[in-house]
Sequence to fold (116 residues):
Amino acid sequence: MLTLQPNNLDKDESNRRPQKPWHHQLDLKFNQDFFLNVGGKRNTLQFGVDIKNFLNLLNSDWGIYKTVNNTSLLSYKSGAYQFQKNGGKKLTDTYSNLNSFNSTYSIQFSVRYIFN
Fold:
C-alpha cells in the first residue's frame, strides 16, 4: 500500500509544473552633471541616457522573454491519448520567444535642471 504524505505531494507537484527558463536583462543608466552659477547660486544641468535590455541591443538573441508553448503534453480524445498541437503544428519546442515590447531594447534620453 502506497501512502502519500503532504510534503511528498508538494515536492511531486513542483517537479511536474512547467518552469520558465532564466531571463537575463541588463539595464544601464548614465548621467552627466554640469554645474552652473546662476544668480550667485550653484544649479545643476543633468543629461542622461537610460538603456533598457542592453543585452538585446548587443545581440538580438539575448534578453528575449520565453513562454511555455503548451502546459499539457497529452490530451485524451476518442478513447486514446494524443499529443497536443500548438497552432495546428506538433510541439517540437518547449518554449517560444515572446514577441512583446519587454523583449526589445529601448533608449531614453533625458535633460534635468536642478535648482538650489
About this structure: The chain is about 15% helix and 45% strand. The first strand starts at residue 28 and ends at 38. The helical segments are 6-16, 54-58. The two ends are 78 Å apart (CA to CA).
